[in-house]
Amino acid sequence: TGRQRPTSPSQRCLRFWGYILLAGMVFFFTCSDPKYVVYMGKDKFENEDLIKYGWPEDIWFHVDKYSSAHVYLRLPPGSVDLAGVKDKGEAKQKLLDAMAEVDPKIMNEMAQLTKHNSIEGCKLAEADIVYTPCLNLKKEERMDTGQVGFKDESFRLLMKNVEKDKDIIKFIERSRIERKVDLAGEKAQRDEEERMRRRKFIEEQKRKEKTEKAEHEREKELKSYADLQHLEKTSNVGVTKTGSIEECREIEEDFM
Question: Which pTM does this prediction carry?
Answer without folding.
Answer: 0.71
